[in-house]
Amino acid sequence: MATQKPSKSTRIRPSSFHGKKAAKLHRLLRTVSLGRLGLFYANELIGEPFGRTYDIVNKKLKLLPPRTLADIEDTDATNELINDGEFVQPLTGDEITALKQSGTHASDIIKLQIEQHANYSLKTEYSKEKYKKRKEAKYSKTFTTIEPTLFNVCEYWFNKDRDRVRDIRIDALSQILHMANIRPGGRYIAVDDASGLIVSGILERMGGQGRLITISNTDSPPAYPIMVTMNFNDETVTPVLSSLNWATADETHTPLVPPVDLSPDQIKSDRQKSRINKRKAALDLLNSNREELFAGGFDSLIIASEYDPWSILERLVPYVAFSGSIVVQSPYAQILSEVQTKMRALPQYLGPSLSEVWLRRYQVLPGRTHPMMNTSGTGGFILHAIKVNDDETATGMAGFRRHKGAAKTSNGTTPTPGASTSTPTPVPVVVVAEDDAMDDIAEAVMDDMEPEPST
Amino acid sequence: MWSTARDIADGDTVIIWLTRDFLQPLTVTAGKDFNSKFGNYRHSDFIGLPFGSKVGSRTGKGFIHVLRPTPELWTLALPHRTQILYVADIALVVAYLDIRLGSKVIEAGTGSGSFSHSVARTIGPSGRLWSYEFHEARAKKASEEFARHGMSDFVTLTHQNVCKDGFNLTDEADSVFLDLPAPWDAVPHAKQALRKDRTTRICCFSPCMEQVLRTVSALNDAGFSDITMYETLVHQHDVSHVPVLPPISEVAEKLKKAEGIREVKRQRQIAAGQRTHEPHGEKRKRGEGDDDGAEAGAGAGAPGSAEPEPGKRLKTGDEVATTETVSVVPTTATAPAAVSKISVSKVVPEVRGHTSYLTFATLLPPLPASALEDAKQEPDETS
Fold this sequence. Notes:
Chain A: This is tRNA (adenine(58)-N(1))-methyltransferase non-catalytic subunit TRM6. With 455 residues, chain A is α/β, with parallel strands linked by helices.
């Protein structure tokens, strides 16, 4: 273990999660069980950096060097002489079990299997490598700790149970966080029926600065089980996150609460007094959270919900600031298509767009690089729009063509840019570069774009 | 970074949304004008409006939306100096490299600064972005841009060829992003710049597979592990609001009705033919037969057929002789129902098919000497 103490979150600490099997480390528990791999003492792992690989030997951990990509010599071997169903392995399953029980190391069992394998020498080097890998995965007692970064946590839950995360794959999750412009110090509203995956992402990107109000369907504060696997500390969560539910988030609703303002003669005991004080604190908190939501001005609204997204938008969009982002996720394109159609009819939604994420992972090995044979078919759909301050008096460019034509025939020259005279006479419409920044785009677009209203 | 105030002030950067595909950045400067094909505006008209306002032009014709800049809008509006990274790639890279508040990140090259703005937003002022650009003019422009966007305190831009001269950093960065023609030359420098007291990560962004392969071996040689590669894309969907597709029973009813009309007509022709054997009647009959192709057996009966007016030419149109076809087709079946509509979506006809390959790798803290000794004594037989 390192003697120098690096920043807390970069090392495995008690109560941190690791591995493709999520496991929580407690000093008190003393041992961690990894199923087939066996048990080891939790203390062995605490203080270690993430990402290392270990072998379990007598409940202790032996550190292994990281695996490197071995260059494999290409040979002329082919599978020409290898037939299915041939008897190639004299070592029986029972014998292997006996070896395992006698404590023979995985590498020795594999070595033995290779020695006895009738056709091993016929295999190509690639095939030999694959064979060894397969056997290693079967017998070895090694494991690697994986840092619970947002990427790894999302991948873990997506692979484990994608229904619970509403098909949100990491590419979708990261795009949602970017489209919603999540940043430290921002103020957001989220509806997360994806086990807290969205909330976890938002909280991590906020880093303990700003506000996140979530709306849930439960009476008590929502559980968000994924948050627990993120190794968040109190400072990241407590000052930032508050939750309301669909009843308390309703402005017309008055929550029914037991009385808290009792006259001194009604209070009979200290216990009753402390109970009332607690109740009062809870009510004050609820009221302040509601006031905060209803006051609005939030930077973005993020929705991944099992409920009708339009009903959620109708309720919560009034609390989003102008220029704020609205991001709705769904496993189904159809649901978001309906929402997009409704959005298009309302000018407060600017540029609603529906997109589908696509991700492909590759196996990268020298001489054997190719896309993975199996991959996830979907990572969900995302609808994004910007809330804008509509101006009903502003009209589109109807009659623009006529106007433009007239201007061209009457006056071939361009109007003087930056003219500060306030003559209200119609000016021929041309793009005049104000800023180096827009030069090339403006020119490029001018050439091939038909005038259309800016929606 | 950019203004977080509700209202636009003089000097603010805004994004002008002209159309979905045409966005422009603008620094609001009182006294200047903004002229576009969607009308003419004075910058002073924007000042005091909330970000996100729709603004009508001075002539009353045309409007624009004036938005608060975000890294994502900036990516769509920014002046291209190079090929740029888009949100799908940026988002995946930021997630994989675990960039967050306070992260120390290296980026080379800066290019048009699309990735830089996104990283700056995420790391915040307590983080650090070292950005390197080997093209002098581009470096200068980017540097000015970062200053204008209030990023200079935590974003450092260096005009340097990192493949040759490295990053001038040792054990400082949490992650490295390389968008270079030859990232393999920068990999050893990246290793030097990365911290060794924790797990750190690198991403190399290359459009070609050949570049990926060279990068992978450079990463492997430099001691990076967990090397993997991703490709990510976004498929935009077109949404249409269309009438519910009609069932085949509707078209079947139409066809049956047409069939009934044809039969009635045929019967009339037969009746007309039988009544008179006038010479011009023959002629007329032949002409009609050519029209609708009804040349069936003349002996067939004509149930319920009324006497048509001789000499009146029949049409195959729907409105003809509804009284006669009642028995064949119930008219209720053709009564139009209220048209209900559904929303459907499909991927737009042309999408970006490839951006780049994202090669990721991890650099673990060096193993303690004791573990290395163990590994030497007991070499892993299987690998």
